[in-house]
C-alpha cells in the first residue's frame, strides 16, 4: 500500500519514505512522545539538586522536546523569569549543543547517525505547579 502511494524513484528514496511512515506509525501506536514528555516532566521531582539528567534522542521530534525542557523546564519552551530577569528553570544545560556520534561510532553502528545526547544539571527550582498558580518555589530537599 505504501509503495503504491509513492512516486517512482530510486530505491534509496523509496526505502527512506517507507522508513518514515513506519516510524510515524510506531511513534503514534506506542505514544513515544507522550511517554518522553511524562518522564521529562517528572524528572525534576525525582532528581535532587546537583544531580544530572542525560537523554539520548534519535529524531528531531524527541530532541526538540528534550531541548525545550532542559532550557526552560517547560514542555512548551516558555522560560519563566524572576523579577531580576534571571531564568527560573529546574535544569541547567551542561552543553549548548547536543553531543553527536563520532564518524567511527557511526561506522560501527549506522543507527547511531541520528542520535543526540543532551545533559542538564538539576538546579534548586522545581517547575511551576498548577495548584501553586504557576509560581516556582525553591526546592528545600538536601
Automatic annotation (TrEMBL):
GO molecular function: rRNA (cytosine-N4-)-methyltransferase activity
GO biological process, one term: rRNA base methylation
One Pfam family recorded for the sequence: Methyltransf_5
InterPro entries from the UniProt entry: RsmH, SAM-dependent_MTases_sf
Cross-referenced SUPFAM superfamilies: S-adenosyl-L-methionine-dependent methyltransferases (SSF53335)
Disordered: annotated segments: 90-142
Protein name: 16S rRNA (Cytosine(1402)-N(4))-methyltransferase
Species of the source: Octactis speculum
Lineage, opening ranks: Eukaryota, Sar, Stramenopiles, Ochrophyta, Dictyochophyceae
